[in-house]
Amino acid sequence: MDGKKILSQKLQSALDERDRDNRLISPPDPSTVAQMVDFGSNDTLSLATSGALTRSFEDQLRKNPDFIVGSTSTRIFEGTTQYLKELEVYMAQFHNAESALFFNSGFDANVALWSTIPQNGDFVLYDQYVHASIHDGMRRGRAKTIMFAHNDCASFRHCLESLRDQNPVIADGRNVVFVALESFYSMDGDETPIHELLGIAKTTLSRGNFIFSVDEAHSNGLLGPNGSGFVSHYGLEKEVGLRVHTFGKALGSNGAVILAELTIKFNLINYARSVIFSTAPSFVALAAVKAGYEILASEDGERRRRALQENIRYFHKTFLSHPKWAAIKKEEIIQIPNEKNWNSEILQSPIIPLVTPPNESTELAGHMHRAKFWANPVRYPIVPKGMDRVRISIHADNTKEQIEDVIEVIMEWATSRAERARKGRL
């Protein structure tokens, strides 16, 4: 047996095992998704699906008639075009930051940040639920890492105090503690308690040798002045030293930017492998990002942010007041990790996590698909074991009728599931 056959058998065995666990990833056919109402994609402001981004992109082409399709080199050589330089200046100003560095994806940005910036002797204290790309970057980095329980201020305080007490280089301020957070978390949809965490850090590390980093993947474009994000919404630009903003969610395109002081930007240019050894982004990719930002800063952008928040609150209100919800919740057929935040006055995340009994998220998603509503089942290892869910994303262009109808479909499945469970106990 040759090497190719041996490898093929090993790889197929791994796929078969995942298939038996009902965890095999098989991307849906685009023609199938196109026939359904979108409650799954990250296009939360509906910029892409509405055609608004296309129109704004075409405007960028008209403003830059001499553009070329394609890229010429890496950023460290000829790839840093004038358009790219101007876009980075624009984004730094937009987000009220000292500098901005563009990346081809949010994953690239996080890997570059966490593998390059924390130095020997530093520590990274990270929330349990931060993005996989942050974990990948930390594994490649030089700093020691410590996890604290998700959004748990007591856990954060305990970890930070232990770290300080056990490491003189931290206690006396010679080295840095980086704190890795997200604004809205990608699977639970809850908000990081940023003010409380900052307060704990200031009290625990009196020398101020800490740097907070906030991944704004799910808040960029949705809140703050002109949609400038979570940190800007709270006016914390001076207190949060690192920000990662991605463009593949509300902005409807792809890429990311790291916002930081100039020293960090040039350190990344000199040491981050995803910068040095990657082809620079083309004009086409950059123009799509600039097109999205121009919508954010427009009246249409403000209207879309309002419409999205109205739809999120309408979903919350309609779901919680549904006559079947109390019984479904009591039976634990569906659980919502961030339900306690749904009645607050703060701006809400568009992510709705519907946690199902183990191995049943695909059943709920299938029921929704048959009713022509698209949402995605999410299973381990993307979420912790036993926390399978259907993740719903609300969009600015969803109608009230669509929201009412999808909730009815969800309740229909949950009621049927509860009845089957009761019969099984008889």
From TrEMBL:
Keywords, comma-separated and alphabetical: Pyridoxal phosphate, Transferase
GO terms of biological process kind: biotin biosynthetic process
Region (Disordered): 10-32
Required cofactor names: pyridoxal 5'-phosphate
Entry keyword Transferase: yes
Domain Aminotransferase class I/classII large positions: 35-410
GO MF terms, alphabetically ordered: pyridoxal phosphate binding; transferase activity
Pfam families (UniProt xref): Aminotran_1_2
Transferase recorded as keyword: yes
Top-rank lineage group of the source organism: Eukaryota
UniProt similarity note: Belongs to the class-II pyridoxal-phosphate-dependent aminotransferase family. BioF subfamily.
Record-linked PANTHER family: 8-AMINO-7-OXONONANOATE SYNTHASE, CLASS II AMINOTRANSFERASE/8-AMINO-7-OXONONANOATE SYNTHASE
Protein name as catalogued: Aminotransferase class I/classII large domain-containing protein
Species per Swiss-Prot/TrEMBL record: Penicillium desertorum
